[in-house]
Amino acid sequence: MSLLKPRLSPVLTQDVIDTLRKQGVRTVLDFLEHNAEEMVKKAGMSYKDVLAIRHVLLAQYSAVPVNGADMYEDALNSMAILPTGVKSLDTMLDGGLYTSEVTELVGPAGVGKSQLCMYTSLNISRNLKQNIMYIDSTGDFCIQRLQDILYSDQVEDETNAFYQHLKLVIVDSLPAVVLPVLGGAQTDGHGYLMHLARMMKTLAVDFNLALMTTNNVVQGEAGETKPALGRAWSHIPNTRVEIKKQDITPDGENRRTAVLTKCSRQPTGLTAEFTITPSGIETYHS
């Protein structure tokens, strides 16, 4: 709690503060914990002046009461669900990507995380007319691949203006940003990672955005695979989806299985199957 200072109230002079400190009253909380009669004796002030100081301190430091029903209504009005465009994946995610949350795609290199990010960004920008910020930290973004998907859906307008509202931020991939720092001084690297995590969570909540990140996998001590970036990062994403390779379909398509490993709305362990085709990503029907 803040220390008592002269600027808090005109009648709270430095002499009064010095007197209060001798009585063990140093902070705003110390002052407010005593009733007015006690403070009159401790500070040697008039009852009127003590009440004036209490009024100022309560106005400046008290929490503003908020109606829970109003907060719930505001949350419902501001929340949005952004479908990825892959029906099986959206069903598993209870509709798609939620704003004010961080969704992480985890999997080995070449499993299709970047393609899923691109396909999701195209679906949201084209069908929902929302703005996307795509941060490609690895240089894997393939404009030719993007054109193939666009042309396959017969998008004719090549001069679409930048959409008015930003709803999705994609960071592909997060380890490429963090690992060079983690490879140096471990203490500094961990602090940087946590600072980045706080910024991402704050950005998602304050601006009502959905954040989508990709992460690699590493091998644990028992030989199992787990998300990279360590235990501290594992608590940051609200939703985590692990992408796994499956056998190629009889039609020669690359089949993938998405496993929900972390989510507050859906039970973990749910799966969704999809295929990566020249025209994009489609739900797999066996």
Automatic annotation (TrEMBL):
GO terms for cellular component: microtubule organizing center; Rad51B-Rad51C-Rad51D-XRCC2 complex; replication fork. PROSITE patterns: RECA_2. Residues 78-217 form the RecA family profile domain. It is found in: Nucleus. Keywords: ATP-binding, DNA damage, DNA recombination, DNA repair, DNA-binding, Nucleotide-binding, Nucleus. CDD domains: Rad51D. The keyword Glycoprotein does not apply. Its main location: nucleus. One of its GO terms (biological process) is reciprocal meiotic recombination. One of its GO terms (molecular function) is single-stranded DNA binding. Pfam families: Rad51 (PF08423), RAD51D_N (PF21794). Belongs to the RecA family. RAD51 subfamily. This is DNA repair protein RAD51 homolog 4 isoform X2. It comes from Lingula anatina (Brachiopod).
